[in-house]
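[Q] Does anyone have a clean structure-token version of this?
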Amino acid sequence: MASPTVRLISECYITPPDEGLSDDANQPIHLTPFELPYLNFNYSQKGLLFAKPKNQDFSITTYLDELCRSLSATLTHFYPLAARLATKKQENPPSYVIYVDPQNSPGVKFVYAKAELNVSNILTSAYVPSVVHSFFDLRNAINHDGHTLPLLSIQVTELNDGIFMGCSINHLIADGTSFWHFMAAWSETFRSKKQKRFFKRQALEGYDPIINLPFTHQDEFVKRFQHPEYKERFFHFSSAIVSRLKAKANVECSNTHKKVSSLQAVAALLWRCITRVRRQPSGSETICNLVTNNRLRLNPPLPDDYFGSPIQYITGRATVEDLMAHGLGWAALRLREAVANHDNAAVKKLVDSWLKDPMPYKFSGLSHPNTVNFVSSPRFDMYGCEFGLGKALAARSGGGNKDDGKMTMYPGRDGGGSMDVEVCLLPKYMMDLEDDPELIDALGNQH
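[A] Here you go.
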């Protein structure tokens, strides 16, 4: 069966109203050493699938108008999302500075599209259908493209019996914490016309707010990545399964006083299972990266609602032989120790190291035959974001930054500590993972 086509119906740009903007709304927003390394990465793409109301009074035109109105009102307090990036260059003394320029604010792009398919086509498919990637705008854009492309684009795709809201946001301006903070603010505005959340940002203590990059032209550092063919599948971990894995991991490392978290237990399980199906040499190193929010790791800490992308990767390492020879608890403890060691000193050591040679990362640098990368978080309140259609049926992601070994974590829709993990693997590994005895045993009848 051919993949359904997503048809573009209309597009426009949404700006905040002129009244109500703060006095800081025209001030440049300088990017930090947490954010600038990711100039070559794709936009972050997350979306929510809703059921379309069954009553005949529902009007998609009225609904879209209300989304646009509430989005404009929300941008009053999140005005940088309507802006674009800018680069200030000079020759004497040499300077190359990339920043967010609120004085150039064409707006947030808002797209309306249609697709002749049903909600069940998304929810019951064994693998994530390729059409899901078409529910997102700005496919293949990298963060540096924010000079000419919107920093945020929202695509509302109308299905036969559902509505998908796909958001593509420049990762330089928002990590997952900030993105879902914005979505919660938009949801509040849509439902109650009131808003309690605001854009908050401050300079990092101990660092020059203006970072000069050692370039004269973007061609010296902009690198695009060709993504391989891969399969994506969701694995659901019920609250009971998560509790059982956490208990098992902690029993297996009970000779220590360190407690393994639920996330670390689930990540350790997948790290082991994926390493097993890859069949790499036993003496080779295998790596498990966990993306981390550094707000509270810094001293002094940043506020929880600091708007930006203060993220880094925490790395657990082991040889393939050791990871396979020991149990779940041993693997989880490797991750737990890596997390515990990522304190203020470790955070600043990575920052200082990058500042000595401020070269944006190549996305291919995360690609390695023995690596798994965990991004997003089951702690994000994705299902708390409602837009007049009730609780979302599912959360999904676009094709941005996808590669063999990427694990995207979501809260389970049923709550209670449940999790969904979107596993992205080369097809040959996905087939073997589905038959992996340890994973089958962990998931039980849900597999």
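[Q] Thanks! Anything notable?
[A] The first helix runs from residue 60 to 75.
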